[in-house]
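User: Fold this; tokens only.

Assistant: Input:
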Amino acid sequence: MGRRDRRSVGPDPRAGGALPADRPWLMVFRAGSSERILLPDEGEATLGSGSASTVLLEGPGVSPVHATLRLGPAEVLLAPSPGATVLLNDDPLPSPRVLASGDALTLGGVTLVFHDRPGRGTRRAVLDPGPFRTRLRQEVERCLRSGGSLSVMILRLGRAAPGDLRAAVEAVGASVRQVDVVCWDGTSEIAVILPETAETASLPTRRALEAASAHAPGVRAGYALCPADAHDVDGLLTGARNAASTAGIGDVAAVSAIVVRSTVGDRQLVVVDPGMRRLLELVERLAASDLPVLIEGETGVGKEMVALALHEWSSRTGRPFLAINCAAVAETLFESELFGHERGAFTGAATTKKGLLESAQGGTVLLDEIGECPAHVQPKLLRVLETRRVARVGAVVERPVDVRIVAATNRDLEGDVLSGRFRRDLYYRLASARLTVPPLRDRPLDMPVLARDFLEAAFQAKGRRPPVISPDAMRRLALHDWPGNVRELRNLMDYCAATLDGDVLLPRHIPADVARHAAPWLAGEPGQATGSALVGAGFEPFERRRHAKLGDEVRELQRTRILQALTVSDGVRIEAARLLSMPLRTLVTRLSEFGINPPGRSPVPGKDRDS
């Protein structure tokens, strides 16, 4: 090689030009001499003997356009031209290949060594929302399976020109680690995954916020931790997004900033989930009216707590709030319990008795499990709702009552209406307003906060300082699907409080059946409880015998499942029967056979614990 023309790139170092440190270049060797030729930082450069080539090479066997270098932000690709022979580090190159600094190229009779600029490939790759969610899902699974920590930050940008927004994204990418993953939705939100970052997440979030603020005004940021705040993609993104919305301009907020604690009588209602927060706002608006309300939701989600909030946040607060579980009252006594009776109205009615509706005068009555209301009582209940008057059993005169009726159910009442099990007119009257309480598994932001609150309350009731829930223990709780919802979580924390003697709740303190199906890789540790909280309270599992008869094994399985259902339902038999898809009478028979006396039964006849 002996000459270069105006199409060659960069100054000739032999003419005294300095070689920039931030540009890629080629060292070209020929007999007795060598030459350095600068390349563009990004773009395309052609190598060959023809006048159209960017880098001119003279030598035997060199084609007019022998090969092409494609220089991109992340890599440099060498592509041989069709029919041209190119050797890369003495090996034939049949197809394009990524180059690294120090690679030796042979084109015909000419040898070159490629040197790249420092830092190529370190420019931040910014993902779109779809691939970002996929990557976050992978990181969450790694965190839950293998331990470690994870956090997600969200930056909300103010109004800015498109160029400034892109500059803000690049500045955020430059401010975080290479292992962190950046996403931009193309408008005003930047999301970042921060693997192996827990309580220190505020530090990189603050750095990213300051970097973005130099280009886009009005930036605010929030972050969420896994598993301390949430344990799935939607929960982490929602938590971080809502925390960012809560933060002031130029400030950072954690998920703890969006916890809502509302006083309901002598209790406290705690929510973080945005859907639950909107539900509470609706409850507050409905509390100002006297409309009947139908509360729907699975067993244990907190329907009674919502009913109590309707009462306590209304003008009826201070007056009676009475509840009756329609499934727990004998059908023959239901009418008397609800409406009252006159003396002598039936055998055993030795005195006059007020019913629940009269006893709650001026207040609120909760008809829990309204789907179990006997058919002969339904038209009488409808008349009370229409006339606001009640007739005791055996009476001929109706009495005025001023009560608000709230009903709750975990059944599909619309399906019961279609099948004829429930009166259509009563259903529409009770459902003047409907509230649906979502299950705990659909409220990933609520579970960690509730777990800590329940554990703290259980320890404070014993006069003890509450322990800390370790990340590994919270990880196990996060993997459980909570079929018994909030009630199951509360019972589990009560059990942990009764058995824990240290300052930290560890996975071995949690019964082994928690999260067993969702995470079979979590094997029980030596000394770990092997059954539910109910078993730990004194109900030992049916002992497995070698070569047991089939009938004995079936009984063992029945007993185990019944114990688990009773734990989830807090000892409420009708709910346990529903979880088992077993008739209540069959369940009662099995309880007698197995000698099981469910704990948690309410001492008040006809009234079970809250739903």
